[in-house]
Amino acid sequence: MKSLGKKPDGLRLERIKASQLWAGESFRNIHPVLPGLRDLGAPRPTLTEFLCGGNRRVPLGPLPAVSPLEGWRRPPTSGLRATWLGHSTVLIKIDGMRVLTDPVWGPRASPSSVAGPKRFQPVPVALRALPPIDAVLISHDHYDHLDYPSIRELAKQQVPFVTSLGVGAHLQAWGVAPERITELDWWESHTLHNGKKALTVTAAPSQHFSGRGLRDRNATLWSSLVVRTERHAVFFSGDTGLTTEYRTIRERLGPFDLVMLEVGAFQPSWGDIHLGPENALKAHGLLGGGAFLPVHWGTFSLAMHAWDEPAETLFALGERANATCDAHARRAGRTHA
């Protein structure tokens, strides 16, 4: 099945083995899990419960959405605009350059086109209708972040891809030319140019895992990603549990005008690999603040909670913490589709 991708080999594997994060057979998280993050007593859902359990896991129908096409025709007055297109897919306009994060237009977060978590919210704009993209960023290789049909479509363009170590094997297998793929270890950077404009992408720590099949667990790296120009800096979490490395990221790569953090697909026994709303607010504080755009929710049912619980919980907690996400987002020039 082509959607499974390909394990790294050859020179790519040699580079992987040189990483300090490589543990001989696979990548590893090197930062200790914070106390209380993972509730070891919480029962993990069975496969049947995951597929069929829970209440209100999807909305009764498609949610209201706004086409971003008209807004995209106007340059952002601040130089920075982020358009959330569902789950962890965001189109960022930053000082004249466009960056697309974890593009997922496919119908399912699954290797199969007929089984697995199905999209309940359509993307508000077709992939082919996007304006020219200067870079595609891929945080890691899970199906809800690395989408086979989307990559196949983007492979037809000349857009460069920046991703974590090893993930380029999947991209190349799906038709992306190797010279358009840059793979980063944590704290490595890559600068892209478009005429006189330039931006730098840096891979930073996260606490997660990877894999698309039965035999490739942690064969590729997972990362958060920072995009910086002369005027602005944006943080994108990918998937992660809460880690004190966020403080180090702030010190080395901050401050940030916009912070995009995952808030959905959380469960008490998954606290070490997903943030959820409460820990997302803690991560936001460790990163030093900035406009907060919550992502990784509202598109697929990937946990037992209600589809809108991440947002409702975040707003309730944010009010008590005096973190008004909407006001911050407006100051960043963000549009929300």
Strand fraction band?
A: 15-25%
For the termini, the CA-CA separation is: 33 Å
Task: Outline the low-pLDDT stretches.
Answer: 326-337
Chain oligomer state: single chain
Average pLDDT score: 92
Which structural category do the helix and sheet elements fall into? Answer: alpha/beta
Order of helices and strands: HHHEEEEHEHEEEEEHEHEHHE
How would you name the CATH homologous superfamily? Ribonuclease Z/Hydroxyacylglutathione hydrolase-like
- Strand order within the widest sheet? 6-5-4-3-2-1-13
User: Which fold does the CATH topology refer to?
Assistant: Metallo-beta-lactamase, Chain A
Largest sheet: 7 strands, mixed
Number of helices: 9
Q: Taking Cα atoms only, what radius of gyration do you get, to the nearest Å?
A: 19 Å
Per CATH, the class reads Alpha Beta
Q: What is the domain total for the residues? A: 1
SSE inventory with pairings:
Layout: H1 10-17, H2 47-52, H3 69-72, E1 80-84, E2 90-94, E3 97-101, E4 135-138, H4 148-154, E5 161-164, H5 168-173, E6 181-184, E7 189-194, E8 197-204, E9 224-228, E10 233-236, H6 245-253, E11 258-262, H7 276-286, E12 291-295, H8 309-320, H9 325-331, E13 335-336
